[in-house]
Amino acid sequence: MPIAFLEVDRIGKSYDATVYAVRDVDLSLERGEILCLLGPSGSGKTTLLRLIAGLEQPDRGTITFEGRDVTATPPHERGFGMMFQDFALFPHRNVGENVGFGLRMQGLAAGDIAGRVAEMLALVELDGLEAREISQLSGGEQQRVALARALAPGPRLLLLDEPLGALDRALRERLMLDLRTILKRVDMTAIYVTHDQTEAFAVGDRVAVMNAGEIVQIGTPQAIYERPATPFVARFLGFRNLISGMISDDGTVKTLIGYFLPEGPIPPVGEEVTLLIKPVMARVEVPPDLLPSDVNSINGVVDTVTFRGRFSQIWVLSRGERLLFDAPGDPRLHPGDEVRIPLLPDQLQIYESSLQ
Ligand code: ADP
Ligand code: MG
């Protein structure tokens, strides 16, 4: 079996006796891969990153890097680069001195440092700005300098903790793409922490979703979006339509708003489940005469319609449940319209009710 570039094996860390900040996490990373750790505040992302960096010691578990056990190796001997939100630039040193900081620590000759600094500034498209003061840079430029500083010593692995967290939305949108492009250009292996799903999907080759100290799902953005592993992941990705149900005698899922038959295996009769109804590209039909709802279709009344351009968001009330659908373009619907929404089996997914 090939040895993984980075292997995290059943790592656990608690700050006090009762709560685990990181609980039995397994993780393995290929060389050149960008993995995003995605989860709400307090889910253990920073702690996991700091454990990998060596800034925290685990209570149990091991970290192996290129086949070597580094669990007890001090941070500076691991050869990892870091870019943390609170890992600020030195405000009283200019751009060149900031980017060259790690290289001076490595004891490189002045000429080599200057060459490498210039190369890094070109990479982040700040060519020739060596002498500029940090205070004369915009927020976005400062983050580019911070990235250049982290990349300059040629780390084997780069660890980034919410690096764009302090920037406004528009700037973040642009920088997340630039960041991925730059990391790919130098073939950097990276772990990138964020609580923002858009950012994780834009930056990561794979995404690990964390909840309460555990990785609840790991995979490509497409795979995670396609099949959220738990109701928590579904909710965190912004899916709103989760309703409770029970497997009926004929194997369909019985809910307050009708009977449904999702794709895939069905739990035993009588089992309580949570049903996820995906909103994507729903066909919202105004029925000629209201038929009773049959399997995989919902009858309801339009509550609100928000036109978003390429699609519209429609809240539908059905027997007291409020459900959200995205319909392409302008569906020409109005509050109060009676509608019928036929669903395909792949728009439906069930979770055993023990899953949160
Ligand atoms: P995230 O980065 O996902 O927001 P953290 O790793 O910072 O999560 O925190 C995970 C859990 O550990 C939280 O419950 C947090 O309160 C706790 N925690 C984090 N750092 C410390 C610390 N230095 N001392 C005590 N508890 C901490
Ligand atoms: Mg954090």
SSE inventory with pairings:
Blueprint: E1 6-14, E2 20-29, E3 34-38, H1 45-53, E4 60-65, E5 68-69, H2 75-78, E6 80-84, H3 95-99, H4 101-105, H5 110-123, H6 139-151, E7 157-161, H7 169-185, E8 190-194, H8 197-203, E9 206-211, E10 214-219, H9 221-226, H10 231-236, E11 242-247, E12 253-255, E13 258-260, E14 272-277, E15 297-307, E16 311-318, E17 321-328, E18 338-342, E19 348-352
Parallel strand pairs: 3-8, 3-9, 6-7, 7-8
Antiparallel strand pairs: 1-2, 1-4, 4-5, 9-10, 11-12, 11-14, 12-13, 14-19, 15-16, 15-18, 16-17
The site of adenosine-5'-diphosphate has 10 residues, from helix 1.
Can you tell me about this structure?
This protein has 356 residues and is α+β, with helices and mostly antiparallel strands. The protein folds into 2 domains: 6-232, P-loop containing nucleotide triphosphate hydrolases (Rossmann fold, 3-Layer(aba) Sandwich), CATH 3.40.50.300; 242-351, Nucleic acid-binding proteins (OB fold (Dihydrolipoamide Acetyltransferase, E2P)). It contains 10 helices and 19 strands. Strands 6-7-8-3-9-10 form a 6-stranded mixed beta sheet, sandwiched between helices. Strands 13-12-11-14-19 form a 5-stranded antiparallel beta sheet. A hairpin with a 5-residue loop joins strand 1 (6-14) and strand 2 (20-29). Helix 5 (110-123) crosses helix 6. The two termini are 34 Å apart. The relative contact order is 0.12. The structure holds adenosine-5'-diphosphate and magnesium ion. Adenosine-5'-diphosphate binds at residues 15, 21, 39, 41-47. Magnesium ion binds at residues 45-46.
